[in-house]
Design brief:
Length: about 425
């Protein structure tokens, strides 16, 4: 291991001190030499890290206890599930995805390679061939190495769906990425670009996008929003029923909705200026494609918005319209968790939050021309709108007709 100082990094406002753990690991940059050396002592790639087993890398306790955490003195996650738990708390990983990773990695570590459980292998011992020819087939077939039938052969359950196999393998890939980038217990990721297409049962028929985003799905889903409760105060503080209704009636993107401020809305005319969005975890920036735009609220939606704002004490100026309890943008994972819970309660087809935009586009294209809807959606080009929604009927164009189109929508609270 070698600690090196790079003056060019410092001049470009990047961390200048490099700890190079290759070929057994990856490169790490630090602000100070002391930080680099402290990290080097903690993860010596020639000793402890190369002895890590799959079970240790995953984090055994974290698979059974969601409160289990294993961090170094520097706050570095020592096992994969501790890092996942931290990202879940920060809102960077949804609760659904976090719990799903637990299930996926339990399956993975319980597979068997040449009579030995995967969890007992050292991370560096696993090969691409092992994963492709021995592990993936076991995952796809629902293989359980711990249970045998009356002939002494492992029980094989119903085949998993192809999508489930793909999702499971996504968690395995992230685990090995952690092994390379954080744990430094191997120099490559053996799970990349393996053949998954031939494994798993054929997908079951699901409604297409146009069928999923009809009023018969969206209306019950909105009605179910108040019923979906979670312990977090962030869920109960925000009027999720109205948030979902507003998104479905305006086609606003999730990041734009989270960044919307009181002075962006003209409560007299119903004109809303979409001029910024929450950009991942980097703060605020311009909307997608760098294009600001205006959207328009029909009389019904404007009246409902005023009721909502009155309940919130009529926020002014730079105050967020849809904040969390502390006045900050709502964490992105809550949108997906909320809409999944509501769909389950309503008994309707599962949709993503982004599909509320598809619902809006489908409604508007019944009353307006494609070019006008493209502007309202904030697409970079009309061609994008045509590719996504060209099959809908089109007509109309003026600002009044935009509001008319919204007013004709079947969606009501």
């Amino acid at each position: 291991m070698k600690v090196t100082y790079y003056e060019s990094n410092k001049s470009n406002n990047r961390k200048p001190w490099l700890l190079d753990l290759r070929p057994h690991g990856t490169r790490h940059f630090f602000e100070t030499e002391a930080e680099a050396k402290a990290f080097a002592k903690k993860v010596d790639p020639f000793s402890d890290s190369l002895q890590l087993t799959i079970d240790q890398l995953i984090g055994g306790d974290a698979l059974h206890d969601a409160t289990a955490r294993n961090f170094s003195a520097h706050g570095q996650a020592i096992d994969f599930m501790s890092l996942s738990a931290k990202r879940n708390e920060e809102g960077r990983l949804s609760k659904h995805e976090y719990l799903r990773r637990i299930v996926h990695l339990q399956k993975f570590r319980d597979c068997v390679i040449d009579g030995k459980r995967v969890g007992h292998f050292k991370v560096r011992e696993i090969t691409r061939n092992d994963l492709q020819t021995k592990v993936i087939p076991q995952i796809a077939e629902g293989f359980d190495p711990e249970r045998n039938d009356h002939n002494g052969k492992p029980i094989v359950y119903k085949k998993l769906a192809q999508k489930t196999v793909k999702n499971t393998w996504g968690s395995v890939t992230q685990l090995f990425k952690f092994a390379v980038d954080f744990a430094n217990c191997r120099k490559d990721n053996p799970s990349w670009q393996l053949q998954l297409r031939d494994y798993g049962a054929a997908p079951t028929k699901r409604m297409n996008k146009e069928e999923r985003v009809q009023p018969e799905t969206v209306v019950p889903l909105i009605e179910a929003m108040p019923e979906a409760q979670l312990k977090s105060t962030a869920w109960n503080d925000l009027d999720w029923k109205f948030v979902t209704f507003f998104a479905a009636k305006t086609g606003i993107r999730q990041g734009e909705l989270r960044a919307l401020q009181a002075h962006d809305i003209n409560l007299e005319t119903g004109k809303v200026h979409i001029r910024r969005a929450v950009k991942s975890y980097e703060g605020f920036g311009k909307p997608k494609n760098g294009k600001t735009r205006f959207i328009f609220l029909d009389d019904y939606l404007l009246a409902e918005l005023k009721k909502y704002l009155l309940k919130r004490g009529m926020p002014e100026g730079e105050a967020l319209i849809f904040p969390d309890p502390d006045g900050n943008p709502v964490k992105p994972n809550l949108f997906m968790d909320r809409i999944r819970s509501a769909a389950k309660i309503a008994g309707v087809e599962q949709i993503d939050w982004h599909e509320l935009r598809h619902y809006y586009a489908g409604e508007m294209l019944q009353f307006m021309r494609l070019e006008q809807v493209s502007k309202l959606m904030g697409h970079a080009t009309v061609g994008i709108t045509a590719n996504l929604y060209g099959h809908f009927v089109v007509s109309k164009t003026s600002e009044d007709e935009i509001k008319y189109g919204q007013s004709q929508s079947a969606l009501r609270m």
